[in-house]
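Dear Dr. H.,

I hope your travels went smoothly. While you were away I took the liberty of generating a structure for the chain from your last submission, since the lab meeting agenda had it listed for discussion. I wanted you to have the full record in hand beforehand rather than looking at slides cold. The sequence, exactly as received, is reproduced here:
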Amino acid sequence: MKVYRRLVRTFLRSGEMEDPKQKKQKLFYTLLGITAVLFIMLPCCLMVGYLTYALTLALMGNGNGLLLVIHFIALFSIVFGINVILNVFYFAGDIPFVLPLPIASYKVIAAKFTTAYINESVMQILVLFSGLIGYFAASGGNWWEYPVGVLGVLLLPVAPLAYCGIFCVVVMAFTKWIRNKDHARRLSMLVMIVLIGVAVSAVGLLQQVDMNHLTEQLGAGKVTFVNVMNVVFPTNYLLAEALSGHNIFLFLLYFLVNIVIVAVFLGLAQMLYYRGLMGAGTEGGKKRKHQNGKGAVAAKQKAPWKAYMKKEFLVLLRTPAFFLNCIVVNILWPVLFYVIRMMQSDSGLLHKYYLYYRLGNEAMQWIVVLIVIGVTVLLTAANSIASSAITREGKHFYVMKYIPVDYRVQLHVKALVSIIISGGFMVFYIVLCSVWMRVENLTSWYYIIVSLLEVVFVTYFGLYLDTVNPKLVWDDELNALRGNTNVFFNMAYAMIITLAFVVIMLGLYLFTKFPLWAFELLLLVVLVLADWGMIRICCKKGIKNLEELT
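The corresponding predicted structure, in token form, is as follows:
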């Protein structure tokens, strides 16, 4: 047991991000963490708790509302769990050092599974606890259900992660093609797309109902998505039934089924893990034919910034983990819009506001401008292109120091790559929405300019954060992103700043009598000044941070 605990601690530390060395940077990161928790995690947890509370009240204590929330969380934990299992079990840098040690294989496997569970489940458990609190607040419970319910929530992520583990060890053991790291990332990308498609289809299976109809369907147990997920995740169903039925025997059965699922995974891993590990982690790619002399003849001299930009694009496009998390993630926003539209189809809420907009309601037109800003911030911050720009260098960071390209140029190029990708997606989405809403050309151009100015601000803000304390020690591209707190801080602070800005601009509009065109002009001026200030901060302090890195 002592060896197992030491292995878990070692595996966890190997993926942790180093703390800043300077006191000012430590204080800065502490404030970032506190603010992010208060303004991002806490509102998210409150939202899930309130949703569960409202559904439970509407269902008069029925546990199907909690069950629906748990099923969606379990589905998305599968999406990200496959990458976590592949990273921890097969592509971690500790494998060459741990395997030769005289340690029983089952201890290594159990420790790696525990590490994957902790890495994947910390935030997920906080959200699940919020749902549990919302359920108990609405339905009450016996005294013994509270501690048992807490233990049940702690175990909820286990089954989805074990499913991911079973899938990975079987595929890695019997498929040579997948042992290549890049191929494994592509497979996980495919699984992610399929599961997201399932989630979107689930919204369609709700039969485009409003919330009143949805609660009736849930209470009657007629939601197809929930019934299918009950079979896929029996542990979720057992926990919800145990809570709503106050049945301690179902609690015991819930714990027993979790143990069986984990035992099946550990048994398969014991038989297949080392077989799949042989040859895993190799850098793949098709063999390229070299033509002697032709490469040198075809080579052309380019400006340093152009060559550096080409290198940045190639890293993002050719690395599956970066491609999936930095580029493909931008495609998910139309899916989110589709889900919102489907859920509101019967209520006609969106159509009502659309009519206000088409009729020339100035307040609604100003709100649309602010919505463009909010969506732009979410897309730019969520793709982490800027907030991981220095981190992606990893062990090759020294190249930034010794190539004959000024730090200022390197920072601007990294920012330009993020602006091109994030801004390109935003322009595309704005054009699509403008066609759908029949927006005038001049208004569409205004939306595009506002969006691009906001992209610039969020990009340079994220780039500056990554110069403060980049995660340069990583052995896998996915770990470079998931273990980088700068990505989370960039999203958190960008959302907080934007929310405050939107509230102020909306308040000024509502409590003053200035015309709309004056506020639209004021918005452009404020965004230009904000971009100018953020660029100066990033170049001045960011360069200083890079010079101090060793």
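Two observations you may find useful: The CA atoms of residues 26 and 534 lie 21 Å apart. Confidence is low (pLDDT under 50) at residues 203-210, 281-299.

With kind regards,
E. W.
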